[in-house]
Amino acid sequence: MDWTAVTVTTTNEAVEAVSNLLMEQGASGVQIDDEKDYEQLEKTDWSQKGEILNVDEIPHVQSGAQVTAYFPATIYVPEIVPEIKRRVDELKTFGLAIAPAKVTTDKVDESNWATEWQKYYHPVQVTRFLTVVPSWEDYQPQNQDERIIKLDPGMAFGTGTHPTTKLSMQALEMVIHGGERLIDVGTGSGVLSITAKQLGAGEIRAYDLDEVAVDSAKKNLALNPVAADVSVAANNLLQGVTGEADIIVANILAEVIIPLIPQAWQLLPVHGYFVTSGIISEKVDQILDAQRKQGFKIRQTLKMGDWYGVIAQKPGDDE
Question: Which pLDDT band, with edges at 50, 70 and 90, does 234 fall under?
């Protein structure tokens, strides 16, 4: 079957937002070609991992990023391209730099599409203990403490390479001690739910507004036996969700975090953690102020490039 590829040429900071809107338009998968990913590959000593990899031989963008979405023949792409262009341009109102924001289309054969993924994804060590590994890689832990997170990057965004995902994973490493009840809001690929399970979390509920993301998360969870009991469902943030959670994590746009703050407050017990990421530098003060106004105590802010993550906590009466 032939597919149509829609490519958005944009910036590193807009990658996850562009990926999200393309999936919402009906894409069956997205491929991310980001200069930052290759910086990570170049820093890796592949000889220590028993592999030989010349990053310069891998075709990749030299600056910024390209997000390519694949649409099946059942979707008439010329009809949705104007809407994609409009929504990409609209991201500027959220404070994201998107230029050049160029949208192009091309035909691609399914067999070629299947092999294209493997050019762009390799194991990524996010922290000392967490490594994200593409599903087709035969990668073995380098030490007894290393935890492997298997993903099929062809299913959805959130592969562990973007700063917002890395910040979320690092924050979870700080707040999970074992057995915590956790809610993953805007789960995307499911990477944070898998991360939480690998770190020892207990009951996990994962939600995403997009049914495509829900399906993708389920497939990725199935690649990781440790996450077999994670429940995934479509939902608009935490509307209608009941039952306390010790930790709520959300890697989403700052504008979406704002309405989530009071919802998270209601579901967290005293000393529960609210972990947020996806916050561009221009929006971090707004998020911090809104969380403090709600009553949260800011325990730590994490920064990577222009992106921030925040660890907040619901305080007790003595604070």
Answer: very high
Average pLDDT over residues 246-268: 94
Within 44-159, residue ranges assigned H as helices are 77-90, 110-120
Pairing mode of beta strands 65-72, 29-34 = antiparallel
**Phi, psi for 155 (deg, rounded to 5):** -85, -40
CB burial of residue 240 (10 Å; 0-12, 13-18, 19+): exposed
Tell me the H-state helices in 15-131. 15-24, 35-43, 77-90, 110-120
User: What are the E-state strand segments in 95-211?
Assistant: 102-109, 124-125, 130-134, 147-151, 182-185, 204-208
Tally Cβ neighbours within 10 Å of residue 217.
Answer: 30
Which structure tokens are listed for 302? 């994490």
Phi, psi of 92 (to 5 degrees): -60, -30
Judge whether residue 119 has pLDDT over 90.
no
Run of H or E including 279: strand 273-280
pLDDT at 93: 85
End-to-end CA distance of the chain: 61
The angle at the Cα of 125, spanning 119 to 131, to the nearest 5 degrees, equals 90
Q: Assess contact for 35 and 15: CB atoms under 8 A.
A: no
Q: Hey, what are 229's tokens?
A: 């009991």
Share of the chain above pLDDT 70, in %: 83
Q: Which amino acid is at 141?
A: P
